[in-house]
Amino acid sequence: MTRIAIPNETCPQDQRTAMTPINVGKLARAGAEVLVESGLGAGCGYADEEYRTAGAGLVGGRSELLEAADLVLRLNKPSGDEVAQLQPGAVHISFLDPFNERALVEALRDRQVSAVSMEMVPRTTRAQKMDALSSQASLAGYVMTIQAANRLNRILPMMMTPSGTIKPARVFVIGAGVAGLQAIATAKRLGARVTAFDTRDVVAEQVESLGANFLQIDLGETGQTENGYARQLTAEQLAMQQQGQAEEILRSDIVITTAQVFGRKPPLLVTGEMLRGMQPGSVIVDMAAESGGNVAGSVAGEVVEQHGVTIIGSGNWSAQVCRDASDMYSNNLFNLVDEYWDAEQKRFILDLEDEILHGCLITHGGEIVNPTIKQHYA
Description:
Number of helices: 13
Helix content: 25-40%
Shape: globular
Distance between the termini: 39 Å
Strand order of the largest sheet: 3-2-1-4-5-6-18-19
Largest sheet: 8 strands, mixed
């Protein structure tokens, strides 16, 4: 019988949990022995008793929990000390940030832990139910728009009043991936006039289907990767993008930037000169602040003001709606485990030839086995 361990998240600003009681129950019914750390779901409203009723055993000691595990399910990456507590041959599944966490990946390799990175789940039809990056990004798009609306010194919808008509606020969303599309949809629901831009012309139809205008900027050949991510622009193309969207930025009340290039530093899209030309009281949300920033002067984890413009770089966006974020991540995680669960043996089996695991399995058998990460480290 496979022993599945689910520890608490240790970041005090993150109240999400990796596994909800309903999915713990599914794992228990599948034949796993499920152990959870006491207080696992407290931050998002799930009591220990709900986990116990679902079939989990509660463990008070974190070390005891990790040392006993055949399979560890969690949200955020482990610390070095926690890696040392895992037994060789254990499977560890979480977000890992493998492009930027080489020391952690090498520690997992040396401990002979099989580490699956949720960031690296391929964006394919079969893997869609496991795509935690997209599920959390969708919530992030909503949260960013709500935060911007709360900081703006005016309302978003058009309003007819006895003293006259209030025009709708203008919102400009840069990047129409999962987060960007949700930001667009949320801003439209709030009544704003929305314009969006993405380097991938293929998403223009999706933007327009949400009722927003798609800003046309001819950048030449751009396209997207096989996983659906935007390709990195050349320096010349980035300059063309900055110039092409400058006018829209200057007349917008809210700008939301979601442009991130997977595994690389994000592009600078809003320059200091643009900030100086924006209306005082305008708001910018920089989704990429924690990885380098799309906006000049944004600060990771903080809200700052530059030239009368509020720049929100809070980060950890989906954690601010931790209940829904936990439910969605738990479903993604359960679906991944269920995909490779052997019902007869009652165990999780790593199929090294499987196309999904080929994309997201980082370490196995004392080696870094992911080709993308191996090339990145070379």
